[in-house]
């Protein structure tokens, strides 16, 4: 019993370190896109030579707003609340939702004067202003432009043949998903391509596979645009399983993950739109360092990264 | 060529989807149902399926083959691991008298975490628990009557069904669930029976994880999150009594089929970014279910199955 108490005390003592922290809250860690983002954060942190601990947390999946809210609130309670000096020096967040879901949690951080840096997905400015709060910086890819590039690639792959596209969208409540879709639809339609059907597979490979599997029986699409690579790979898998000639159905993804690049090389995917999550992570740390030296901290700053179509 | 034409026609595609998706769902629900029938619950099945699916995918990658022997070897490894996790569950619940919900939840959570760590290690990714889907090696098969994966899935279901029937696991579960004290006084080693049921549930969940991996040709650390609730819901829909005492392989199989067809219906009709259409349809179905519950409530809740005494059922009484 005595030994147990000593061990327990040791564990508690180790938990309550007073080291300063940067809190990184990702959508999920089962998507290599966010893993690369974390690598960028770590890389810049080590280059800056700061003695600061990086705390990485995430939701269970890319739409897990509740999970992110719990993480934000519990970290606030542990490291910020009732402390003269908050231990968290900056919050870097990839929001699972662009709506008002996380606004109250963000407000608590901003009220404690902790810079809030959003990556990949923006939160509605209107929702934040309604709650009398703000983010300080958002770094994201120009998703509308990415969608347009994907549409141009898709149309070029059709080479003048009739074009009827199935779109697999991300989580419906996400700006990222909405912008990719808008960019693609606008450019594809202007180039004479028809959007046959849109469905949301919530960024998930297995959901995309199920949807395309169900549609495979009455397939009349000439191509598939998926708002991320996981869904693109799921679509390919389902088409292949249903016996369709996948070489005649171009599939364009988004994110340029390693597996998608390999799939492109092997001819399974036609193309993918590359973002730079590593650079996003690096910019977040640069901004956090810069904000720590500025008073007042800027509000609603936006940095857009240009996407490009890649294959291989 | 015939297989190609078969798989791309409407009905055949749905059948191919069913053959791909139904076997793992059925056996996962059988495993969950067995424990429900015994008056316990096993919510670790999703974690076990995830861990064993990941192990299965990694093994096939190591063997660099998806031939039947490679699938068999990888599945057996997964099933053994699942059985061991099931035994751990059984020990906690049967021997240490731990509450099954808490104990199996904890074991399942640990299984999820180990799956994340193993996948991260295998994929050489940055952090523990981080991985994309692990894709099986080789070309993705066409799911039709000519694919070996098709027969492998059917074979797996047959093996589980025969095991449950031969070892009378359903009967044993019902024995425990209907009156555990009675079983003890009748001379049954209830602890051992419970241990056996948990081990079986774990092994079955592991096999389901392997079949899910074959069906989607991939395995990821989060793809089964929440599936334990679906499996238990299917088991209950299939007639399994939540407080124990009733279990039917056929009932659960039919219920899984119903569940999957309903899922296809929603998948096939709900639309993309404007999810409102999908929500309206979901609401319409929910309304229909309320109407069915209102009109057939007594039947659904099992009152019509209750054994009444002769006096009670006599209309002339």
Brief rundown of the structure:
The complex is a heterodimer of chains A (312) and B (317). In chain A, 45% of the residues lie in helices and 20% in strands.
Write a structural description.
The complex is a heterodimer of chains A (312) and B (317). Chain A has eleven helices and twelve strands. With 312 residues, chain A is an alpha/beta fold. Chain A folds into two domains: 19-142 and 277-307, Rossmann fold (3-Layer(aba) Sandwich), CATH 3.40.50; 143-274, Rossmann fold (3-Layer(aba) Sandwich). Chain A has a six-stranded parallel beta sheet, sandwiched between helices. The N and C termini of chain A lie far apart (59 Å). Chain B has two domains: 2-269, ABC transporter involved in vitamin B12 uptake, BtuC (Orthogonal Bundle); 276-317. Chain B contains 13 helices and two strands; from the N terminus they run H-H-H-H-H-E-H-H-H-H-E-H-H-H-H. The termini of chain B are far apart. Residues 1-8, 126-130, 270-278 and 302-317 of chain B have low confidence and may be disordered. At the A-B interface, helix 2, strand 6, helix 7, strand 7 and helix 8 of A face helix 1, helix 2 and helix 11 of B.
């Amino acid at each position: 019993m005595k030994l147990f108490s000593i061990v327990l005390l040791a564990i508690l003592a180790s938990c309550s370190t007073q080291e300063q922290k940067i809190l990184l809250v990702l959508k999920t860690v089962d998507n290599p896109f966010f893993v690369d983002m974390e690598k960028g954060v770590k890389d810049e942190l080590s280059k800056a030579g700061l003695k600061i601990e990086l705390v990485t947390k995430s939701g269970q999946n890319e739409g897990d707003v509740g999970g992110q809210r719990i993480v934000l609130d519990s970290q606030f309670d542990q490291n910020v609340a009732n402390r003269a000096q908050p231990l968290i020096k900056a919050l870097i967040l990839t929001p699972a939702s662009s709506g008002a879901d996380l606004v109250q949690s963000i407000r608590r951080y901003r009220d404690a004067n902790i810079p809030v840096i959003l990556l990949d997905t923006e939160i509605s400015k209107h929702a934040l202003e309604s709650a009398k709060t703000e983010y300080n910086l958002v770094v994201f890819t120009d998703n509308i432009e990415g969608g347009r590039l994907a549409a141009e690639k898709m149309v070029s792959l059709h080479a003048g043949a009739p074009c009827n596209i199935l779109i697999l969208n991300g989580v419906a409540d996400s700006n990222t998903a909405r912008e990719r879709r808008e960019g693609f639809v606008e450019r594809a339609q202007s180039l004479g391509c028809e959007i046959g059907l849109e469905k949301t597979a919530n960024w998930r490979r297995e959901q995309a596979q199920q949807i395309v599997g169900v549609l495979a029986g009455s397939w009349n699409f000439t191509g598939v645009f998926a708002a991320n690579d996981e869904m693109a790979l799921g679509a390919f898998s389902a088409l292949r399983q249903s016996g369709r000639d996948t070489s005649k159905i171009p599939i364009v993804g988004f994110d340029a993950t390693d597996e998608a690049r390999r799939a492109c090389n092997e001819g399974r995917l036609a193309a993918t739109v590359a973002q730079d999550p590593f650079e996003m992570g690096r910019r977040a740390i640069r901004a956090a360092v810069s904000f720590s030296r500025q008073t007042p901290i800027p509000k609603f700053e936006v940095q857009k990264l240009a996407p490009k179509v890649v294959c291989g | 060529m015939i297989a190609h034409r078969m798989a791309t026609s409407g009905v055949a595609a749905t059948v191919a989807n069913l053959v791909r998706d139904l076997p793992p769902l059925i056996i996962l629900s059988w495993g969950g149902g067995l424990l429900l029938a015994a008056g316990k619950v096993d919510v670790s099945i999703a974690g076990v399926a995830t861990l064993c699916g990941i192990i299965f995918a990694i093994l096939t990658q190591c063997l660099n083959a998806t031939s039947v022997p490679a699938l068999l070897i990888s599945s057996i490894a997964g099933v053994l691991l699942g059985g061991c996790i099931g035994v751990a569950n059984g020990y906690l619940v049967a021997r240490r008298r731990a509450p099954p919900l808490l104990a199996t939840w904890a074991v399942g959570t640990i299984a999820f975490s180990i799956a994340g760590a193993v996948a991260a290690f295998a994929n050489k990714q940055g952090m523990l628990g981080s991985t994309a889907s692990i894709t099986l090696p080789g070309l993705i098969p066409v799911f039709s009557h000519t694919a070996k994966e098709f027969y492998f899935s059917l074979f797996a279901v047959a093996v589980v069904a025969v095991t449950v029937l031969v070892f009378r696991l359903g009967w044993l579960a019902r024995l425990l669930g209907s009156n555990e004290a009675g079983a003890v006084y009748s001379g049954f080693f209830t602890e051992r029976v419970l241990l056996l049921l948990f081990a079986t549930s774990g092994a079955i969940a592991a096999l389901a994880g392997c079949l899910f991996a074959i069906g989607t040709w991939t395995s990821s650390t989060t793809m089964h999150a929440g599936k334990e609730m679906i499996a238990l819901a299917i088991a209950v829909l299939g007639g399994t009594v939540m407080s124990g005492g009733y279990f039917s392989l056929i009932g659960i199989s039919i219920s899984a089929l119903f569940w999957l067809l309903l899922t296809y219906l929603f998948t096939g009709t709900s639309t993309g970014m404007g999810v409102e259409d999908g929500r309206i349809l979901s609401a319409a179905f929910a309304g229909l279910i309320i109407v069915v519950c209102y009109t057939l409530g007594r039947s659904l809740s099992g009152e019509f199955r209750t054994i009444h005494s002769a006096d009670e059922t006599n209309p002339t009484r």
